[in-house]
Write a structure and sequence with these properties.
This protein has helices spanning 46-53, 76-86, 102-113, 117-130, 146-158, 176-191, 203-206, and strands at residues 2-15, 18-31, 35-39, 61-66, 69-70, 87-90, 164-168, 195-200, 211-216, 219-222. The protein is an alpha/beta fold. Helix 4 (117-130) crosses helix 5 (146-158). Bound molecules: adenosine-5'-diphosphate (2 copies).
């Protein structure tokens, strides 16, 4: 089943006299259970593509179908709901709230959904256990290593049972050994059936996915595009 279908997505930015084609007729189809990396250098359009797929931003034109819903035609408030239901985000810098414990950070998406406190706690603990860090539930982010913080962030991304995980440079702030561990965790989550999209400028990281697509000057290519 097709999880994501992008057809001829365009996004341009006007910079004075110049028009930047951040996304230039991008078409991409991702099946349920796939693990796709999107690789490209700085300025190639990765963030713009991530923002579009993550329902954070509207394309100028083109069609975007996510899990059967046409999201290109939705209003901003509808996009926010879709985002919360269907997408788990993982970021380079973890984006954990510093005053909340690991467990409380993982509970956040469930608070937004209105899940009751007891269930929230149980689901968040299960999610922490799934990424192998339940014994750190009561720690604050600054009491955890980078790799542990990223595990907490992955638990938060998983807790609402999203259709896809969208990871933007998830190993960008980690040393190479910890990066390997986080990539192994993503590979294991994919083997359990989760659809994962990984955005990176690092070809070594990109090659861990089942499928690689490349972006260069806003254009998308199947495989590793030779620059
Ligand atoms: P990447 O994430 O691969 O570094 P981006 O998607 O951030 O690439 O940017 C793609 C192109 O669009 C770049 O040329 C960038 O300068 C331009 N761009 C991105 N966002 C904006 C913006 N808000 N305003 C103007 N130009 C932008
Ligand atoms: P990344 O580190 O993921 O490549 P960037 O540093 O390219 O991200 O961009 C971060 C954010 O800044 C993007 O979401 C984009 O919208 C915005 N941005 C990128 N380039 C420009 C630009 N030339 N002018 C304004 N905003 C930009």
């Amino acid at each position: 089943e097709t999880m994501i279908s992008l057809k001829k997505i365009e996004k341009t930015y006007k910079m004075g006299q110049n028009t930047v084609h951040a996304l230039d007729h991008v078409s991409l189809s991702i099946e349920e259970g796939d693990f796709v990396s999107i690789v490209g250098p700085s300025g190639s359009g990765k963030s713009t593509l991530m923002n579009t797929m993550g329902c954070l931003d509207h394309p100028d034109s083109g069609e975007y179908v996510l899990g059967g819903s046409h999201v290109d035609s939705l209003k901003d408030w509808q996009l926010a709901d879709i985002r919360n239901q269907k997408i788990g985000f993982i970021f380079q810098n973890f984006n954990l709230l510093g005053k909340l414990t690991a467990l409380e950070n993982v509970e956040l998406p469930l608070i937004y959904r209105g899940t009751k406190a007891k269930e929230r706690r149980e689901q968040a603990m299960a999610s922490l256990a799934q990424v192998g860090i339940e014994e750190r539930a009561e720690h604050l982010p600054n009491q955890l290593s980078g790799g542990q913080q990223q595990r907490v962030a992955i638990a938060r991304a998983l807790v609402g049972q999203p259709s896809i995980l969208l990871a933007d440079e998830p190993t960008g702030a980690l040393d190479s050994r910890t990066s390997e561990e986080i990539m192994d965790l993503l590979i294991a989550l994919n083997k359990e059936g989760r659809t994962i999209i990984l955005i990176t400028h690092d070809l070594h990281v990109a090659r861990k996915a089942k499928r690689t697509v490349s972006i260069s000057d806003g254009k998308l290519y199947e495989g590793e595009h030779v620059l």
